Amino acid sequence: MPQEKNEHGNPMGGSQGVGSTVTTRESGHHEHQIELSWWRRYVFSTDHKVIGIQYMITALFVTLFAFGLMVVMRWQLSYPGKPVPVIGPLLTAVFGANMAPGGVMTPNLYNSFGAMHGTMMIFMAVVPALFAGFGNFIVPLQLGAPDMAFPRLNMASFWSFFVGVVIMLVGFLVPGGAAKSGWTSYPPLADIADTGMGFEPILNGQTLWLIGMVFNITGSLLGSINIIATIIQLRAPGLGWMRLPVFVWAELVTAFLLLLAFPPLESAAIMQLMDRLFGTSFFSPDGLVVGGRPWPASGGGSALLWQHLFWFLGHPEVYVTILPSMGIVGEVFANNTRKPLWSYKTFVYSMLAIGFISLLVWAHHMYMTGMGQSVSIFFQVFTIMISIPSIILGTVLLLSLWGGSIRFSVPMLFALAWLPMFGIGGLTGLPLGYTASDMVLHDTYYVIGHFHYMMAPAALMGLFAGMYYWFPKATGRMLNEFWGKVHFWMTIIFFNGIFFPMLIQGYTGVHRRWFDGGAGWQMAQPVLWLNHVMSISAWILAIGQIPFIINFFWSIWRGKKVESDNPWQATTLEWATPTPPGHGNFLHPVEVYRDAYEYSVPGASRDFLPQWEREESRVAEPKLSSA
Fold first, then answer.
1. N or C end: fewer C-beta atoms under 10 angstroms in the chain?
2. Which InterPro entries match (predicted)?
């Protein structure tokens, strides 16, 4: 049977998710075709590319949902006590008159939306998209590998994550609504929340939050093991450690962070579940009084133990989002400056240093717990130390622009915007690293502004850069450049319109958890007008994502077809595959002959030398379209 070819004349692979069959070899003697059902190709697939797309689509859906929660919260902060327009009746219908009387957000509903916004954005949106989505799709391709090291484990990791997302969403539908104890789930509040009359023992928001987190963490651990094993074991011949693309290095460091830091949090979540369901007291202290009565399960537990276990993951989690975005930005910079990164090894060693030091700074989130001067000094020192490799990374990227023939493509615009967003996020974190200044700024909107600059603009600029950059490899079509630029400018402007005013409000002492936005505090009156600036920016930012959503789905079927398997004229191995890649990824085994970013090599006839070409090719590549 003749093999189907794509529009470039390349044979189409029989991929799970790309084609309809998989070629297998039995006993090394002959091949036969196995027909795959629709469920095996698109749902319960073991193909790393399909799983990467599953992670990405699920994470983008969660992002939109969690972003919607924030949009509603911004109304409450700007117009406290007034009915939410348009969806106010829906809030009352879904959550009941006790939670949203007349479409007005109550403190309980506000707390619920805040807890779920933070939880879902961090653990079920940004991290899965950057680490698991891009990691699954891109890493095996950049390694020259046919798939991940453990394909079935890979499938299990996604479905564990997906089940966690579903359980978390179910929390909105149970009596009392979703979890209300914050995205950090601090005990003793989290031990006693959603208990008593009117609440089911398991089908309540806080318990479902814990169960969802256990499934989510299990999926992340399985994915981390797979990423590490794949990078170590499945590199193509000639692909030494110092020839790896920087995105692969970023994924490797991130995988080790998750593997080391997530188990303590999963253990803590299980212990908190036992506190809630079986009457243990891992985190319930002696003498706990609830509603005027002694809490029956309190018996010597430590609420601070939860904080240590949570933040041991909670702070590396920041770098779990930033490191993959750093890797993406490094890829896009090298390709669009048409020159190697200014110092590849410095970039790699800085990421390794960040990964190591990030495990030693978790308790700077706990200065107000009275941990003692000696311990505080230890965490202050390492908090400042981690800024050094971060600054070095930014410097490498900045110097990489010097002398480059810069192409201002849409991926490059998002990558360029990543630099100042990362810079603001990092610099605003320094005052929080010292106990003296942290005492003043702790639990104010300054913390929210700093944290969001790292987790939202910085991480999402990298996310969008990667989506625009690798979209043609995944689909064979280009995203529209004009609408991509509209999306970029609306995103970068209104991101800052949301988060920069938070820093100003924080300096005046506006508390991060006031559900009325500070309206009830006299000293906040001069800066209350910034609530309107932030809310309007958030609503326009939401509108600004519509061009991206339409562009994304339109381009999948109607976008301009790529003219080459390597439309960006790049050098790394993912561009050596057919477009889109078939089962097994590569038509023939590949070998690596040079470093990752051989751009503008003196004496070469082209300005790029791919890793997989033994000698410089003299075949002219098609010109990049400016449209």
1. N
2. Cyt_c_oxase-like_su1_dom, Cyt_c_oxase-like_su1_sf, Cyt_C_Oxase_1, Cyt_c_Oxase_su1_BS
**Residue found by looking up tokens 């639990």 in the block:** 443
Neighbours of 388 (CB within 10 A): 13
Indicate the pairing of strand 477-478 with strand 560-561: antiparallel
Q: With cut-offs at 50, 70 and 90, classify the pLDDT of residue 278.
A: very high
Final residue in a domain of this structure, among 253, 276, 301: 301
- Residue 622's domain comprises 562-627
Measured distance CA(342)–CA(463) in Å, rounded: 23
The span from the CA of 564 to the CA of 571, in Å, is 14
DSSP-derived letter for residue 19 is B
Q: Are 281 and 296 in contact (CB under 8 A)?
A: no
- Cα 438 to Cα 304, 444, 507, 569: the distances in Å are 18, 10, 11, 48
**Contact (Cβ atoms closer than 8 angstroms) between residue 324 and residue 131:** yes
More confident residue, 20 or 178: 178
Question: How many domains, in total, are found in the chain?
Answer: 2
Rounded Cα distance, 555 and 476, in Å: 10
How far, in Å, CA of 505 to CA of 7, rounded? 56
Structure tokens at 404: 């480059």
* 54 pLDDT higher than 70: yes
Residue 42 lies in a domain: yes
| Token pair in block for residue 529 | 């007008």
**Measured between alpha carbons, how far is 523 from 520 in angstroms, rounded to an integer?**
9
Check: pTM over 0.85? Answer yes or no: yes
Report if residue 456 sits inside a domain.
no
Radius of gyration, alpha carbons of the chain: 25
Amino acid at 50: V
Contacts of 429 (CB under 8 A, 6+ apart): 387, 450, 454
